[in-house]
Amino acid sequence: MIKKIYIFPLTSSMTLSHLPLPYHIFESRYRKMLEASLTKKVPIAVLPPSLQPFVGAQVFAGVPRLIHQHEDGRSDIVISGDFRVKVLKVYEEDEYLAADVEEIALLRAVTQASHAHRELIREALEFWVDQQKIEREQKKVFVDMLGQDECLLLSYGLSLLVKSELEKVVFLKCESWDEWAKLLVKKIGPTELSLGPYLTKLKF
Question: Using an 8 Å Cβ cutoff, are 62 and 84 in contact?
Answer without folding.
Answer: no
